[in-house]
């Protein structure tokens, strides 16, 4: 059974006028084809919508039930062009974003605020996930965008696009009770000798792990790893508990935790990069709008 919007429009006009002649005038048509259209709709539905009494008509119980639904369908149909236009321009729809925990203390909050301000009709789903989990989720189509620490695995380079958006040095996070840390002073890595290290497991963040270990090796130190954790807030929590020290991206200092102090290092450190990754074949207008917003924010000043 296929009911046309035209039939519903005719029905609503007759139901509101309760007079076929007036409804025909309202619809700018003659009365016979309007009566035929109503009869055709009743035949499709298998029930009478109007009771005809001499020169007047009234709605049946079925007609009363259909009227609000017919009005709703007509309103929805009128909204379709605008809905499609918004979707085509990325102004409405849905995007699923995964992010590494370090992004939560740097670029993610301002990006989300600006995107929601510019695209209030877009629904955003967020997941915290390590980079390796994000690669699998992107390949499976479970997320649209990953905010991650590179590199992208070789097997995915042909299917994923990547764009760097942040680069920052490593700093030291240490227990506030540590008596070898001077207030406000930069710390030499040699001062960290003998301190237990808390770090991401290499399998989950190889670039970050290698950068941290490389800092120690560059000054002839081999740290003892006391704990591993996959979330930055867990690492900082362990530092707060006096379980050891950690080298973390500079933006993590925005995570204020009692019992933790952050210090810049005397030695230069590798830059920790964070970037966006997405499937090359994902042509979602919402995804493109998010990427364009990021690019706009990263444009150098004139």
What's the topology here?
Blueprint: H1 5-17, H2 20-26, H3 31-45, E1 50-53, E2 56-59, H4 61-88, E3 92-99, H5 108-118, E4 121-128, H6 131-139, E5 145-148, E6 160-168, E7 170-175, E8 197-199, H7 206-218, E9 225-228, H8 232-240, E10 246-249, E11 260-263, E12 272-279, H9 285-297
Parallel strand pairs: 3-4, 3-5, 8-9
Antiparallel strand pairs: 1-2, 5-12, 6-12, 7-10, 7-11
Helix pairs in contact: 1-2, 1-3, 1-4
Overview of this structure, please?
By secondary structure, the chain is α/β, with parallel strands linked by helices. The protein folds into 3 domains: 5-88, Arc Repressor Mutant, subunit A (Orthogonal Bundle); 92-167 and 273-297, Periplasmic binding protein-like II (D-Maltodextrin-Binding Protein, domain 2, 3-Layer(aba) Sandwich), CATH 3.40.190; 170-270, D-Maltodextrin-Binding Protein, domain 2. It has helices spanning 5-17, 20-26, 31-45, 61-88, 108-118, 131-139, 206-218, 232-240, 285-297; strands at 50-53, 56-59, 92-99, 121-128, 145-148, 160-168, 170-175, 197-199, 225-228, 246-249, 260-263, 272-279. α1 (5-17) crosses α2 (20-26), α1 (5-17) packs across α3 and α1 packs across α4. The protein is rod-shaped and about 105 Å long. The two termini are 62 Å apart. The model has no long low-confidence stretch (mean pLDDT 90).
Low-confidence stretches: none
CATH class of the largest domain reads: Alpha Beta
Approximate shape: rod-shaped
The profile of the biggest β sheet is: 5 strands, mixed
Number of strands: 12
Give, in order, the helices and strands.
HHHEEHEHEHEEEEHEHEEEH
SS class: alpha/beta
- Arithmetic mean of pLDDT: 90
CATH topology of the largest domain: D-Maltodextrin-Binding Protein, domain 2
Helix content: 25-40%
Major sheet: arrangement of strands: 4-3-5-12-6
Write out the CATH superfamily name of the largest domain.
Periplasmic binding protein-like II
Kindly give the count of domains: 3
What is the architecture of the largest domain at the second tier of CATH? 3-Layer(aba) Sandwich
């Amino acid at each position: 059974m296929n009911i046309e919007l035209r039939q519903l429009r005719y029905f609503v006009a007759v139901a509101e006028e309760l007079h076929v002649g007036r409804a025909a005038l309202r619809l700018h048509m003659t009365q016979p084809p309007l009566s035929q259209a109503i009869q055709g709709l009743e035949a499709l539905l298998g029930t009478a919508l109007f009771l005809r009494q001499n020169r007047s008509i009234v709605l049946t119980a079925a007609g009363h039930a259909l009227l609000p639904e017919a009005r709703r369908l007509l309103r929805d149909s009128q909204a379709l062009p605008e809905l499609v236009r918004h979707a085509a321009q990325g102004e409405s729809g849905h995007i699923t974003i995964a992010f590494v925990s370090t992004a939560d203390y740097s670029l993610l909050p301002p990006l989300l605020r600006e995107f929601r301000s510019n695209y209030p009709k877009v629904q955003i789903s967020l997941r915290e996930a390590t980079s390796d989990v994000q690669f699998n989720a992107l390949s499976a189509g479970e997320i649209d965008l990953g905010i991650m620490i590179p590199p992208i695995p070789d097997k995915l380079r042909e299917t994923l696009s990547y764009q760097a958006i942040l680069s920052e040095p490593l700093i030291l996070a240490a227990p506030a009770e540590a008596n070898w840390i001077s207030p406000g002073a930069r710390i030499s890595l040699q001062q960290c000798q003998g301190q237990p290290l808390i770090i991401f497991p290499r399998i989950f963040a190889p670039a970050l792990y290698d950068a941290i270990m490389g800092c120690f090796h560059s000054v002839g130190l081999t740290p003892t790893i006391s704990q591993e954790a996959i979330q930055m807030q867990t690492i900082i929590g362990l530092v707060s508990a006096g379980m050891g020290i950690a080298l973390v991206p500079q933006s993590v200092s925005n995570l204020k935790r009692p019992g933790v102090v952050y210090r810049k290092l005397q030695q230069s450190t590798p830059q920790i990069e964070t970037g966006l990754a997405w499937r090359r074949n994902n042509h979602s207008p919402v995804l493109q709008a998010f990427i364009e917003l990021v690019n706009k924010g990263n444009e150098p000043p004139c």
